[in-house]
Amino acid sequence: MAGALQNATGLQRWDSPESPPLLALHGFTGDANDFAWLAEHSRESIDWWALNLPGHGNAHITEPDSLKLDDFLDAIEVARRKIVAVTGQRPDLFGYSMGGRIALHTASRNPAKWRSLITVGATPGISDPIHRMDRLVADEDLAKRMRKQSIEEFLEAWQAMPIIKSQESIPQEILGPMHTRRRRNNPTQLAAALVAVSTGRLPALWDHLSELDLPYLAIIGQMDLKFGQITQKMRPYLPNAELASIPGVGHCAHLEAPEAFLELLQAFRARLH
Known about the structure:
- The protein has one domain: 3-Layer(aba) Sandwich (Rossmann fold), CATH 3.40.50.
- The protein is an alpha/beta fold.
- The protein is globular, with a radius of gyration of 17 Å.
- It contains 11 helices and 7 strands.
- Helix 1 links the parallel strand 2 and strand 3 (47-51).
- It has helices at 36-40, 69-87, 98-109, 129-148, 151-158, 162-165, 172-182, 187-196, 225-234, 253-256, 258-270, and strands spanning 12-14, 21-25, 47-51, 92-96, 116-120, 216-221, 242-246.
- Its EC number is 4.2.99.20.
């Protein structure tokens, strides 16, 4: 593994042995425990698993400059094999934002390994090479600033961004602990992850969406206009996918409206039987 993960990726499970498993991938600055509330409130129907992606939580990187997408995919594959070994079942794959982007890359490489795919606020990438380069330059500039800042300084600016600011509507019992965990992150580690899986660096998947031969539920928050447009643009490439919008919330729809999200997720999974 080129990025050299120093510690385990912190694969966690919220036991529900009688239910089909689901592996969850968090967003940028998050960790596996971002899904704790969802897992605890759906134990009867979902066997939740989640891991810390490289550079987040305890998934420290010893060689940040060499981190790349394959390191993320390798960590996910290790988790998938563990889940299959324990449960004997193919897991569903769920990802939010950065985790959703990585989930799309994971599923596109081998959709048969997964029972289904669920994303919230995900993009297949940037097709235009000039726009992709612009995004990479912007993310590299942000990463340089992050390496010079304390985690508190970075988070103050990050959480003020419009796409992140809607998270203020997340219920406090979820948001408070999430903010505490965010402050435990290391800016240098986060910077490496930001650049490694930047939409400016990853290949665009638009031409490969039709190869996603598995059930797919793409969710957006109604107020997340940018990703709403992206998801609508995905529709012609995914004629068999289900698209859902959660009213009154933004980018982090699964936590801004957790009950509504769980209703969508549980109904989707019930249709897979």
